């Protein structure tokens, strides 16, 4: 369908391949200037009534289901529990074009691209990975700081353009964590970061939803389940005596996205009697080693769906 649409547009414009003509033959600056002028002219034709109509039906523009006071209270709880050493950032709503597809290997059509060679943030962990890479590159330049880790966090609205399922919205809030450092050997940095991320998220769930039961499912992706049990599951079981901590060898999603190990965080309402909600996800990635072209770099990420935690089962994300 998309190919047929592009062929029709090309014929109407008298160009053999309009996509190649715009993306390959024009420099990014020229393409940006062209698109800016196109949208300037389109905006000039929009009247007040048309604008209001578009606002009412545009899924990207509608306010979130959460109330601002709820999000403020959540952020206060999140920052009060954040472990020492983390830098909580207020990220821009925009990030360079390709952040999701290059860093997170997500199809570009699933994000909202802009005419200024940027895109709206669709996953804050991708942006935190870029910031981690910038900071790690500076630390690597000095032999005395090359082993210094970078730990970042943020709470931000995300916008995604893919089709929505029942109860899902085009924009939602994500609490994101990234921990980056040099390889310490024996999976030491990765396991420590995983334990820190999961225990923090579980503590946050307990603060916001004290009556909910937490279930942590950890998946081995390196063929070393005994190591994972010893270095991740055993410490988590000690730190989270009220939670369920288990290995999940059957997880299918995330393979190829994560390496070595990943996890899902579930919360069960009503004292553990309700339906389990998937509210968190994370694991080890290769993003900083790719960004810095350095195989020794390590990165662990985590995300918590704020809408699901605050809104409960009615919220789709």
Number of helical segments with 4 or more residues: 12
CATH topology of the largest domain: BirA Bifunctional Protein, domain 2
| Domain unit count | 2
Number of strands: 10
Order of helices and strands: HHHHHEEHEHEEHEHEEHEHEH
**CATH architect. name of the largest domain:** 2-Layer Sandwich
Helix/strand class: alpha+beta
For the largest beta-sheet, the strand count, sense and barrel status come to: 8 strands, mixed
Strand order of the largest sheet: 1-4-5-10-9-8-6-7
From the N-terminal CA to the C-terminal CA, the straight-line distance is: 29 Å
The proportion of residues forming helix, as a percent range, comes to 40-55%
pLDDT averaged residue by residue:
91
Walk me through the topology:
Layout: H1 2-13, H2 18-23, H3 28-44, H4 48-57, H5 68-81, E1 87-88, E2 94-96, H6 99-103, E3 118-120, H7 124-140, E4 150-159, E5 171-182, H8 188-208, E6 213-220, H9 225-239, E7 244-247, E8 259-268, H10 269-272, E9 277-285, H11 287-291, E10 297-305, H12 306-311
Parallel strand pairs: 1-4, 6-7
Antiparallel strand pairs: 2-3, 4-5, 5-10, 6-8, 8-9, 9-10
Helix pairs in contact: 5-8, 8-9
Describe the fold and architecture:
This protein has 2 domains: 2-45, no CATH class; 68-314, BirA Bifunctional Protein, domain 2. 42% of the residues lie in helices and 22% in strands. The protein has 12 helices and 10 strands. Helix 5 packs across helix 8 (188-208) and helix 8 (188-208) packs parallel to helix 9 (225-239). The longest helix has 21 residues, at 188-208. It is globular, with a radius of gyration of 22 Å. 32% of the residues are buried. The model has no long low-confidence stretch (mean pLDDT 91).
């Amino acid at each position: 369908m998309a190919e047929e649409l592009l062929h029709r547009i090309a014929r109407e414009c008298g160009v053999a391949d309009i996509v190649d003509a715009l993306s390959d033959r024009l420099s990014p600056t020229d393409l940006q200037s062209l698109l800016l002028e196109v949208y300037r002219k389109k905006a000039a034709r929009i009247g007040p009534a048309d604008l209001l109509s578009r606002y009412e039906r545009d899924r990207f523009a509608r306010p979130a289901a959460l109330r601002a006071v709820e999000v403020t209270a959540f952020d206060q709880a999140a920052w009060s529990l954040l472990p020492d050493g983390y830098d909580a950032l207020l990220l821009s709503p925009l990030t360079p074009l390709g952040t999701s597809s290059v860093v997170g290997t997500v199809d570009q059509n699933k994000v909202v691209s802009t005419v200024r060679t940027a895109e709206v943030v669709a996953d804050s962990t991708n942006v935190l990975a870029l910031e981690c890479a910038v900071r790690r590159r500076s630390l690597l330049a000095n032999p005395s700081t090359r082993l210094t880790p970078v730990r970042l966090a943020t709470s931000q609205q995300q916008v995604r353009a893919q089709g929505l399922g029942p109860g899902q919205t085009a924009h939602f809030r994500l609490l994101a964590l990234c921990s980056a450092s040099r390889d310490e050997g024996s999976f030491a940095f990765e396991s420590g970061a995983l334990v820190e991320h999961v225990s923090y998220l579980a503590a946050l769930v307990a603060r916001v939803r004290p009556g909910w039961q937490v279930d942590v499912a950890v998946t081995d992706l390196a063929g070393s389940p005994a190591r994972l049990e010893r270095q991740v599951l055993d410490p988590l079981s000690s730190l989270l005596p009220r939670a369920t901590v288990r290995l999940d060898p059957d997880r299918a999603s995330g393979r190829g996205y994560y390496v070595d190990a990943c996890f899902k965080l579930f919360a069960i309402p009503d004292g553990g009697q309700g339906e389990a909600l998937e509210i968190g996800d994370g694991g080890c990635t290769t993003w900083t080693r790719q960004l810095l072209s350095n195989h020794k770099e390590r990165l662990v990420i985590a995300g918590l769906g704020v809408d699901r935690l605050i809104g409960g089962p009615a919220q789709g994300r």
